[in-house]
Design goal:
18% strand; globular; 16 helices; Uridine Diphospho-n-acetylenolpyruvylglucosamine Reductase, domain 3; flavoprotein (chains A, B); Vanillyl_alc_oxidase_C-sub2 (chains A, B); Alpha-Beta Plaits; 468 residues; 7-stranded antiparallel sheet; disordered N terminus; alpha+beta; homodimer
Chain lengths: 468, 468
Amino acid sequence: MNSPQPAARDALPTAFVDTLRTAFGARFSTAQAVRAHHGHDESHFPDALPDAVVFPHSTGEVAAIVAACRAHRVPIVPYGAGSSLEGHILAIHGGLCVDFSEMNKVLAIHTEDMDVVVQPGVTRKQLNAALHGSGLFFPLDPGADASIGGMASTRASGTNAVRYGTMRESVLGLTAVLADGRVIRTGGRARKSSSGYDLTRLLVGAEGTLGLITELTVRLHPLPEAVSAAVCAFPSVDAAVRTVIQTIQLGVPVARIELLEALTVRAINRYSKTTLREAPTLFFEFHGSPAGVEEQAASVQEIAREQGGMDFEWATRPEDRSRLWQARHDTYFACLNLRPGSRGVTTDVCVPISRLAEAIAGAREDIAASGLIAPILGHVGDGNFHTVILVDPDNPAELERAEALNRRIVERALALDGTCTGEHGIGFGKQDFLLAEHGEAAVDAMRLVKRALDPDNLLNPGKVLPGL
Amino acid sequence: MNSPQPAARDALPTAFVDTLRTAFGARFSTAQAVRAHHGHDESHFPDALPDAVVFPHSTGEVAAIVAACRAHRVPIVPYGAGSSLEGHILAIHGGLCVDFSEMNKVLAIHTEDMDVVVQPGVTRKQLNAALHGSGLFFPLDPGADASIGGMASTRASGTNAVRYGTMRESVLGLTAVLADGRVIRTGGRARKSSSGYDLTRLLVGAEGTLGLITELTVRLHPLPEAVSAAVCAFPSVDAAVRTVIQTIQLGVPVARIELLEALTVRAINRYSKTTLREAPTLFFEFHGSPAGVEEQAASVQEIAREQGGMDFEWATRPEDRSRLWQARHDTYFACLNLRPGSRGVTTDVCVPISRLAEAIAGAREDIAASGLIAPILGHVGDGNFHTVILVDPDNPAELERAEALNRRIVERALALDGTCTGEHGIGFGKQDFLLAEHGEAAVDAMRLVKRALDPDNLLNPGKVLPGL
């Protein structure tokens, strides 16, 4: 894990500040409080403040911002909801933070085509509120109320990805401002296309280093006719994981399948005042027709029973489901609460489903050997799981142990044909892992693309690519 | 539509020929018959022969080929099964054809993870034969027995894409040789990842212009427990299209939903000796559990009935289904057979589902006005349809009318928020349309990527990007 190395740098050029102030008035700020608010995310990394923050309202304004930054060689850091876990929005080289929170309009809802056009600052909850009554929803749910632009930039996913895919599958098209100030439109509203290079998916997951996303066309899904959720406790983590593997391999189209180990359940019980049995647990959700949901649930119950699953408890009322998933979403904070004052170093590996049991068992051994507190939870239907390693941010030795633990978990995942990050992204915390995962030649190819599209390295510099 | 402009050029350098002959022996050929075999695809474009053909067996050999081509500035044209419809494999600037047909090993079947690792020359039918008994299948089906490498390169899809996605969703990872001779590995076997730029999807659909794919990890699906297929005739194309739109909008997970107009059905009856009613027709296929398939079929039957659908005829026996889909797959040749000696100019637009009726009705008017014979068929669940414009290849005036008709159909599709190609690719036939669809700035961004990864323009030159 790299530490941010704020380069010694000059303050922003006066001419640049004047240009922005004239164009944006009160929507441009160099105030300490505004900079401080934009200088940290949800990760454990130290704050790194931008020199100024601007709040654009349109693609044209973003293009003007990029032109000014290019003229004065000012780094640009895009900012969504600030819920990143890998330091994406830390201004480690200073520069201008472009806060998209005021570009938060839902521009068009195409009910008949099940897609929506949004500005990047729209959050997923806001989008689903706007879709109320349409019969459609945006299923991706990373827990935090992240912005759609930020979710695209980190190729986010979350609890529903096992059924509905990730942002890679969800984004149909983009408008983006490139480093040269030009506005491009990628993709489109057709469901498939063989028309040229896939610039959409090049920008999705690029963490703001190849262009600033100013508009997104996103795929929606019909609200399922029937939904049911259930909780099931298991005698061991292994038994729970075997249940997951068999469910996926049988092709049961579960919408959510989440693993929590006993410690994680204890954290949830304390934080969310729930009374779940403190054992390894799976949370399930099934979507479909009434008959389909019943069929799915019956299949999974049978698998779980064979693995010693206990207490298959149903939450059929919407309010019970909401309480359940809210508790699941609050797990990160519930975990932090196990050790007041701590921050979380979150691991995010993802492995092929057949290697999941080995990856999790290995992680549990590593955690035990480390002496650290690190509850495990995860979107196990995808082979993705997290450990929230609780650290005292003022204890460098402990932070080092946490980073060593993270490295061991990642190295095992890579040896098991997995990835160092299933959904959080590289940021600057995982650049060594990027290299270990893809190799020098592939990372060089990424660098060639970056240099071609951003020769002056102005877009979110220091993120994703080591040595850039 | 551009015409291929074979540049005046020298023969292959002697030193280059000597190098390849020494390394590959009989697997390197400059024989006229071999060159001629590799000088055309299934399109109407005139033949353009490579100067030589080589048949590599490994990634290492491909890297050596690229190194030799680079040293001698010899263009490289990758060749799969030759079933392209947009001239992708025509050697319009001469050079070396790299025929991947002898790189046709299925390297690993990961049943538990539902993925497979293949060499690029493996064809889709070969792959499904290799999967026999595994309980899994590779659903993508473009009709032709295309190679998996070629399908990835054109971002192909076909009849099953409405349920299982396209090659964009199916390719999990790649090994590729870049223009500098370096071997990269992209993606991996984890189901999702936020690790760096999406080089996998940059290469998928790049038509061999950014790298030569030498290995692919491809997603598989469980064989459905139950399958049923049906044919339904409609009083009008509009009624059939309305049935499709409502089916998709209701979220019925049909596996296939294909439209054939009356003329197309007539062509099939003649060519495949079937006795289908010569009316606008939909072919359906449903995959799922027995109950799920019944539920899907009941929903669709109800929709079809409301639109005046007649003769909902079931093909439940596997041999009846095979006959049905074989007839569907032979449609291209059945259409050509409507006018013996003709070749097909195939259009391939794809529009948002809500605009499908307008796009098809407009195409029918354009065809009528053109005086040409051009049956319509299509993967309408995706909003994708084809017209096969039958032309006398020796009649330039007719070819020009066909191209004008193609242009009108594309222009309407773009105006309806669609794409000029749903699944066939750009090749050199659609470069003007690429520009019209994406605009100068986006195509320039593609050019920047191309120049960064292939500065000497050696990889399939003259394809995809206008002016390169």
